[in-house]
UniProtKB/TrEMBL annotation, chains A, B, C:
GO biological process annotation, one example: iron ion transport
Protein name listed in UniProt: STEAP4 metalloreductase
Annotated transmembrane regions: 202-220, 249-271, 292-317, 347-365, 386-403, 415-442
PANTHER family found in the cross-reference section: DUDULIN-RELATED, METALLOREDUCTASE STEAP4
Highest taxon of the lineage: Eukaryota
Cellular localization per UniProt: Endosome membrane
Record's bilayer topology term: Multi-pass membrane protein
Family: Belongs to the STEAP family.
Amino acid sequence: MEKNSFNMISLPENSPHKQETVCIFGAGDFGRSLGYKMLQCGYSIVFGSRKTKTSSLIPKGAEVLHHEEAAQKADIIIVAIQRQHYNFLTKLTEVLHGKVLVDVSNNLKINQYPESNAEYLAELVPGAKIVKAFNTVSAWALQSGTLDASRQVFVCGDDNKAKQRVMDIVRTLGLTPVDQGSLLAAKEIENYPLQLFPMWKFPIYLSIGLSAFFFIYSVIRDVIYPYVYDKKDVSFFIAVTIPNRVCPIVALILLALVYLPGIIAAILQLHRGTKYSRFPDWLDKWMLCRKQLGLVALAFAFLHVLYTLVIPIRYYVRWRLNGYVISQIKANRTDPFNNTNGWISDSYVALGILGFFLFLLLGITSLPSVSNSVNWREFRFVQSKLGYLTLILCTAHTLVYGGKRFLIPSMYKWYLPAAYMLSLIVPCTVLVIKFVLIFPCIDRPLTQIRQGWERSPKDSKHSCYNDSKSAV
Amino acid sequence: MEKNSFNMISLPENSPHKQETVCIFGAGDFGRSLGYKMLQCGYSIVFGSRKTKTSSLIPKGAEVLHHEEAAQKADIIIVAIQRQHYNFLTKLTEVLHGKVLVDVSNNLKINQYPESNAEYLAELVPGAKIVKAFNTVSAWALQSGTLDASRQVFVCGDDNKAKQRVMDIVRTLGLTPVDQGSLLAAKEIENYPLQLFPMWKFPIYLSIGLSAFFFIYSVIRDVIYPYVYDKKDVSFFIAVTIPNRVCPIVALILLALVYLPGIIAAILQLHRGTKYSRFPDWLDKWMLCRKQLGLVALAFAFLHVLYTLVIPIRYYVRWRLNGYVISQIKANRTDPFNNTNGWISDSYVALGILGFFLFLLLGITSLPSVSNSVNWREFRFVQSKLGYLTLILCTAHTLVYGGKRFLIPSMYKWYLPAAYMLSLIVPCTVLVIKFVLIFPCIDRPLTQIRQGWERSPKDSKHSCYNDSKSAV
Amino acid sequence: MEKNSFNMISLPENSPHKQETVCIFGAGDFGRSLGYKMLQCGYSIVFGSRKTKTSSLIPKGAEVLHHEEAAQKADIIIVAIQRQHYNFLTKLTEVLHGKVLVDVSNNLKINQYPESNAEYLAELVPGAKIVKAFNTVSAWALQSGTLDASRQVFVCGDDNKAKQRVMDIVRTLGLTPVDQGSLLAAKEIENYPLQLFPMWKFPIYLSIGLSAFFFIYSVIRDVIYPYVYDKKDVSFFIAVTIPNRVCPIVALILLALVYLPGIIAAILQLHRGTKYSRFPDWLDKWMLCRKQLGLVALAFAFLHVLYTLVIPIRYYVRWRLNGYVISQIKANRTDPFNNTNGWISDSYVALGILGFFLFLLLGITSLPSVSNSVNWREFRFVQSKLGYLTLILCTAHTLVYGGKRFLIPSMYKWYLPAAYMLSLIVPCTVLVIKFVLIFPCIDRPLTQIRQGWERSPKDSKHSCYNDSKSAV
C-alpha cells in the first residue's frame, strides 16, 4: 500500500480540517506516540494523568489535565494504561458513562488472564461503550511512520456506533481497521501480537529434526565411511553434496505428510461410519498446519533445485569430469552412448522439473491474495488433484533417480541403505492407500459419509472395505 | 490469515458471551454443519424441521421444533433447504414477516433457473428481508475448520440492516464477509462456487493445443527423421530435448497473443473512427483473458528456464562433450576460439535472462495483492511498457538463437523449417504492427479516439493511416 | 478477482432490478463512460449539460437535460467536469441543497491547487454532501471492462450516509470501494492516480547509478586492460561476464543500504539520548523506502543467480574447459584434487544459495498479502533477524569468493582493486557497527530510549558508548 505511506509524511503539513477532541488516559510511551500521531492528523488531544505537569515528553499542542477533567472534554477516551492500574477507573464511572472507552492494552503472555483486558474494562465501567483497538500497532511504528507490517488494526466492540467512530479514527491515521465483531473477539485480538508463527512451529521443528537425522545419516555413509575404509577425505561434501541429499529427502517426506492426515481422516470416517464424531486432537492440529507443512517442503525442494543446478560449476565436479575424460584417452577407449542411461538420466530430470513446477504452482495458490480469489471448488481442485500429481511426480523422480541401485549390495555401506530409500517409505505408503481409497467400492461410502450420511449400527461395517483390501 | 485459524480451535472452549438465537430451516448436512459451528461460537440454535424428533445427527444443544414455532423463536432464519422445496414457505408468510431470511442455497448448474434462488425466495415471502450468504462455504470446511480457501463469504441483500446483522454472524464464525450490494448480485454469487477457472479455460486449451502440435512437429523432425535416415535412436529426446524446444515456442506465441488483441482493437478503432461501437464478442473475451494468457506463457517460460539450466547435468550432453574433446585430441587439433560464436552464445543467453526477468516482474505485478496496490498509471506502465520490452527481448532471444541457421538448407528436414522459425511469426507480426501504430501520424488520431473524439463521416478516413503504411 | 470479471460481461443481459436515477453533470468522455457503465448495471441516467441536444455519443437510454432540470431528477449528482468550470455550480446551490455531489475530477499535476477539488466543490456548494470517488478509474477501463488494476475506488466524504450510497453504486458497478474517511483525504486521493512509483524512484535511480559505475569499472579492468596489454579481444564479456560481476555487487550494496539507516538512527538516538526528536529528513525518507531498496537488491541477486547458472552452457566456458583438458593431456599430467579448493568452491556456492534463499523469503514476506497476515512481532522477526542473517551470508559468500585473491598483486590491474572488494565496504561497515550495537552496555540504553525513556541533561552522555567503542 504505497498509497498510504506518503500519507504519513504529507499529512502533518496540510491538515486544515479540525477533527474532534480525543482524550488519552496515561502518558506512557504508547499514549504519547498515539497522541503525537493523532495531533498530526488534526485531532485535539487532551491527556488524562495523575500529575498534570506538562513534561517535555508530552507532544506539543496537547493539553494535560486530571483524569476527570480530561474525560469530560472528550467523547472518546483511549485507555493507554496497563491492566493492573485499571481499577482507579471505577471512581470515574459517572464521568465515563455513555462515553467510548478504547482499550489498547496488550499482555505479556498469551492467555495471561482468564478474561480479556477489554472485557475486564467493560466490567469495571459498565456504563461505557468499550472498544478494543490499536493493540496490534507498535509505538515505534506510530512515531516513525514505518508501518510496513502492521497497517491492520483489529477493532471489536459490542456497540456498533462506538466501533464505527473508532474505525474512523483508525482510517484517519492512515491505518486499515478490520472489524472483528463483538467484544468476544478481544481475547484473540490481545493474543494476536504475542504470537510468533504459531502454525509454523510444528512444521519447522519437524523439518529441522528430519534434516538433522538425514544429515548425520548421510555424513556417516558418505564422509565417514570412505574415510574409514579408503582414507579418502571428502569432508567438503558437507557444504553442497550432503545438503543436496538431505533437502530432496526432507521435501518429499514433508510433502507426503501433507496428504497423510487426509488419508487417516478418511480411514477413521470409514471405520466410524460417520463424519460427526470429532477427530483426535493431534489429527485436527495436523490438518490445520498442512499448508505450512507444504510450504516448508517447497522451501526444501527449492534449495534442492538450486543445489542441483550449481553442480556443473563446482570445482570437484569439473575435476572429476576432466579426470574421466583423461582416463578414457589414456586407455584409448571411447565409452559408447548407452541409450538406457540416456533415458534414465533425462526422464529423472524431466520428472523432477515437472514435479517442482507443480509444487511451485501449489505454493503460489496458497498465497493469501491468490487463495482468496479462487472459490472452494477451484481450491480443492488445485490442492487435491494437483497436489497428488505433484506427490506422484516427485516420488517417481526419486524412484527413477534410484534406478536399479537398490539392488547393488555395495550401496549398503555398513548395512545402511541409501538415504533416498528411506525417504520413499512415507510417500509410497500415502500413494498406495490413496490408490485403495479411490476404488469405487470404498469411495462411494466415503462420499456418502462426507455428505452427512451415517451408517446405522446394523450395517455390516467392514464388508466392502475388507473386500477391496484383499483385492489389492 | 493465521489470525483466524486459531480462532476456530480456541473459541469452543471459551465463549461466555451468549449470542442471539438463530433459527435454521432444514436439518440436512449443511444446516447441521452451520448449526454446529454457530453453537460453538455462542449462538443459540433452533432447527425448524418437518419431523421434530431430535436425531443423533442434530448437534448437541440445539432445539428442534416445527417450522412455525422455530421461526417465532428467532429474528434471523437461515433457509438451508433446496430451492425445489421453498414453496412450503408461502404458508409461513405471516410468521416470517419482517424477519431476516438468509438464503444459503446453491444450484447444480450455472444459470440453472431464470432468477436466482434468493430472488425467488424474495418473491415467495415478500414481507421478509432476504439476504444471500454462506453459499460459498462448504459444509465440510465449516465442520473441520480447514477453511484455507473459502474464508470469503459473499453477502448481498436489499435491506442494509439485515445485511449488517448477517455480516456480523459471518464475522463471529471467523469468516470474512464481502458485501456485494443488492440482491441483484445473488445470481452471480450463486454461480460463483460452480465455476472452475472460467477465465483460464481458453488459455489452457490453447496452450495444450499449441504444445501438442509443436511436440509432434519436433518429434517428426528430431526423432523420426534421424531414425529413418541415419537409423539413430534418439527417442530419449522426448523427455527433455523436445519439451525444451516446445516450451519456449509456446511461451513466445502466447506472450505475443497477449498483445495481439490490443493491436486489433487499435486497428478497429482507427478504422471505425470511434471507440463507442462495441468490439466483436471474440475480441472482448480475448481481451479479458489476457492476464491468464500471460501467466500461462510465464509458466512455459519458467519450464524452459529449468529445462535449459539442467542441460549440463544430462548424461547425453556430458557424453557428447567428452566425445568432442576426445575427437579433438585424436585429431591432434585444438579448435581456436571463435569470437563471433562467443558473442552470439553470450548475447543469446543474456537476452533470454533479461526477458525472463522482466516476464517474472510482469507475473508478480499481476498477483491480486500487488496489482491492488498500484494505481492505473503504474499498472499501465508495467503491463504495457515493460510488457512490450519483454516481448522484444524474448523475440530477439529467439532470433539470435537461430542466428544464421535459417539459411542452411540442411535445417529444412523433409522441407519442414525448424520449429523456432514458426514461433517467430506471431511475435514479429505484433511487433511490426505496434511499430507502425506508434508513428505520430497514427498515434495522434488513435489517442484522440480513445479520449472520446469521433471522426465525422466526412473525414477522409484512410489518408494518414494509408500513408504511414506505405511508408513502412 | 476472477469473481468480478464475469460480472462485467454477464450483467448487461440480466438486470431486471431497476436501480435509482443518477444525474451526471458533463457529457465528456469520462461522464459518458461512467453513464454507459451505470446504464448497463440498471441505473437510470440523466445527463446535465449546457446543450441538451442528444448527440450520438450519449449512451442509448440516457436522457439529456439542462443542469437544473437534471439535478432535480436525481438525488445523487456526479460532477464529471473539470475544476476550472466548477463555478457555474454556485448558481445551482438551491437545487443541489441536501443532494449528494460526487467529485470524480483529477488534476494534471500533483498538488496542483492548494486545496483538493472536492474541498473546493464543498466550498462552492455548501449545502450539498460532497463525496470524492471514481477518480482512480479510467474511462477506457470502465468501457472496455478490463479493470485489472483499478478495481479499487477510493471514497471519502464528511457525510457517512452519502458516502455509503456512493459506495453501494461502486459495488454495483463491480468495483471495490475503499473507505478513506473524511473529505480531508481527498487531496491524497486526487494525487494518487498521478503517481508513478514514488517510493521506487530513489532505489531505482541509485541502482542504475551503481550499476553504471561498476559496469564501466569492470569493462576497464576486464575488457580494456587485456586488450591494451595482451591484444586479446574479449569484448563479448559485456554480454554475460560483466553483468554477472555487476549484479551481485549492486545487490550486496543495496542490501547493506537497507540496514544502514536503522544503524544511523540508533546512533542518533544514542547520541541524543531520546527518541522524541525528529530524524533529519533524508534519514526519514531513506527509512521509508527500505522495502523498495531491498526488493531492487533482490532483483539484482536473482539476475546474478540466473547469470551464474547459465555459465556451463556458454560457448566460451566450454571452449576454455576443453582447452584445459587438452593441455593437461598434451603435458601428460593430471592435476591432483586440491582439498582446499574443493572446500572453498563448495562453501562459497553453499553460502550463496542459502543467502539467496533467505533473501527470497524476505521478498515473499514483503508481498502486501503476506505482510498483512503476519503481526508486528513476526514481521520484525523476519525483516530484522532473517534480514541480518541474509546480509551476513551474502557478505560471507563474497568474502569466500574472493578467498586469498586480494593478496595477489596481479589482481590490481592499473592499481584498481577487483570490483568485488569495493562491494564489501558498505556491508562490512554495517555488520561491524551492528555488532557493536548489540553489546549489552549499548543495547540496554538503546532499548530504554526506544521504550520512551529520556536521558536527563546531567547524565554523563558518552560514558558507556565510548567505553564500548574503545573496547572494540
